[in-house]
Amino acid sequence: MSLKIKEKIQAPNAIQDYKRIFPYVKPYLWRAILAVLITIPLGSMDAVIAWALRPYMDVVMIEKNVKASSYIPLLIVVFSLVQSFLNYATTYLNTWVGNKITMDLKYDLFKKLMTFDPAYFDKNSSGNIQFRFGTDAEMACSGLLSNLKLFTTRLFSSISLIFVLFYNSWQLAILAVVFLFGALYPLATVRRKIKSITLKTVFSGGQIITHYNEAFQGNRVISSYNLYDYQERKFYDTLKTMFKLGMKMIKKTGLISPMMHFIVSLGIAGAIWLGSYLIITNQLTPGGFVSFITALLMLYQPIKSIGTNYTNIQLSFMAMERVFEVLDSVPAIKNKENALLLPGIKKEIKYRDVCFEYIPGKPVLKHINLTIKPGQTIAFVGNSGGGKTTLVNLLPRFYDVCGGQITIDGTDIRDLDLYSLRDKISIVFQDNFLFGGTIRENILLGNENATEEQLRSAIKCACLEEFVSTLDLGVDTEIGERGILLSGGQKQRIAIARAFIKNAPIVILDEATSALDNKSEAIVQQAIENLMKDRTVLIIAHRLSTVRHADKIIVINYGELVEEGTHEELIQKENGIYASLYRTQLN
Q: Where residue 412 falls among pLDDT bands split at 50, 70, 90?
């Protein structure tokens, strides 16, 4: 699968990124400020050791002062101990604040994920979603906090060390600072070099997660079709892509650290050469020279490896940009301002000249006109892929129409509050998703406030009583992830019980029995008939024998409504599509 990424390359804007993240920092601001304040003495103490070497060398080594030889090392030990404690304190505070920010950011990302329409999930793989909504948040926050700690610590350390440099020799200090800025210059090109590679790496990282998800969810298919080699090849191809991207990253950024190391080495060599001259000409004491070189090495040391750190920081900023890109995105399906509540259905549901397409220029539904009265049972039949499921999926606004409108009691459903609209609709899918947990928890998803009596009634109406009675823990039995411990018929009946307890006036049945054996189908069909009583029902059916008693049967072929009527009316049509389908299934 090829990936085409066209994105405008922008200059790094750390200030803008921090402004965006600030609302997440604000609740923990005082802890964050304390962590920053601790870095002031933490960084400044680097200069103490370098500064102390000047009197130590001049007084102890040159003047042979025995008394000074004892208190200066002790002073260094005390300062190092304090510095170690401060380092632990700022690390703890930064980690605490960072984890809190990550938690809040992930929560907002998950809330955002819940607002996306099915089309978003159609276009994005599970791995891509997990990467964008999980890994990016962690990378952004950890990079932010480590960047902040690194920046503030190094800032105050550098200021104090530069002060020591000038304290010992202004001539050497000017030389050192010139080489310092020369070493930092290559960092200016990092972001431009890694941006496109990073975007491709994110895509490949999502593919890796997708492979793991498919191996888990499709393990039975893999086993039954002996797809081990096939899956391994796909996974290895993705790993090779990741390897190539990683090597491209090294090619573009790998020279930065060695280049900085070389420039730093030139600075040290220059300082030693000039320092030797200053000592010989008595413009600098040996102690001052040793103090200067120590401060210079402590100042230059982080520079040697900062190329890698800076690259990681830029990756964190890019992750932050992707996070806010998600948070700023607007779902395609959303409420209008002043959206109306839907109290119920009193008159009719109407499809008016409805058109729809998933891909522009490839219509799935063409000018559908249909009226559904309250309490009616409407069955949709027709060729596979003809648009039946799409037609009913437009009613709860899983997608919005591309042309025409759907109204309930004369109000366009796009003007209705989404929660209010979907609260009036229960759906039983062909492959119902059950959540990890118990039977009780899955049924109560239809109505978390249902009473025990309502729960028992739903179980009875869904024909689950006999099955539940055979379980040691009854409705509190764990069903495994996605209901893996249940049969297809049992899962369908739990989904029907969920729909019962929701008690919505509209029920959509999307081929709810097509994947079941005859015995399971008979039980589930009885449960469905119980669910259909006194409700407006839309049935998508493959087996026409299950919709004979529908009030109206709608035949959808290749996106068009081609026939409409009762079973008796349609079966009598000469050369009718429904009659032909029905006779075919009988034979």
A: very high
The residues that bridge with 406 in the sheet, in sequence order, are: 351
pLDDT > 90 in the chain, percent: 5
Residue 403: count of CB within 10 angstroms of its CB = 15
DSSP state of 352: E
* CA-based R_g, the chain, Å: 35
How far apart, in whole angstroms, are the C-alpha atoms of residue 296 and residue 303? 11
Cβ-count burial 220-250 (b if 16+ within 10 Å, e if not): eeeeeeebeeeeeeebeebeebbeebeebbe
Three-state DSSP at 353 gives strand
Let me know: does 432 contact 490? Beta carbons within 8 Å.
no
CB 349 within 8 A of CB 175: no
Residues paired with 324 in a beta bridge: none
293 CB-near residues (< 8 Å, 6+ apart)? 268, 271, 272, 275
Q: List CB contacts of 363: < 8 A, sequence separation 6 or more.
A: 355, 356, 357, 559
d(CA 515, CA 404): 34
Q: Which residue has the tokens 């097509």?
A: 514
What confidence score (pLDDT) does residue 353 get?
93
Cα angle 433-434-436, degrees, rounded to a multiple of 5: 135
Residue 499 neighbours by CB under 8 Å, 6+ apart:
426, 427, 428, 446, 507, 531
Average pLDDT, the chain: 77
CB 336 within 8 A of CB 415: yes
Sheet strands side by side (includes 506-510): 425-428, 506-510, 536-540, 377-382, 552-557, 560-565
pLDDT digits (tens, 9 = 90+) for 426-471: 888 877 778 878 888 888 888 888 888 888 888 888 888 888 888 8
From CA 483, how far away is CA 445, in angstroms rounded?
14
Under 8 Å between Cβ of 294 and 53? yes
Token output for 47: 């200069």
Instruction: Please state, in angstroms and rounded to a whole number, the distance separating the CA atoms of residues 88 and 546.
Output: 70
| Cα atoms found within 13 Å of the Cα of residue 24, Cβ hemisphere only | 27
Per-residue tokens: 470: 């055979």
**Mean pLDDT value across residues 74-78:** 73
Share of the chain above pLDDT 70, in %: 78
Q: What is the pLDDT of residues 102-135, one digit of tens each?
A: 888 888 888 888 888 888 888 877 777 877 787 7
Query: Which amino acid, one-letter code, is at 107?
Result: Y
Output the furthest CA–CA distance in the chain (Å, rounded).
120
pLDDT at 253 over 70: no
The reply to whether the predicted model has a pTM over 0.90 is no
Q: What is the token pair recorded at 142?
A: 């950890």
pLDDT recorded at residue 7: 36
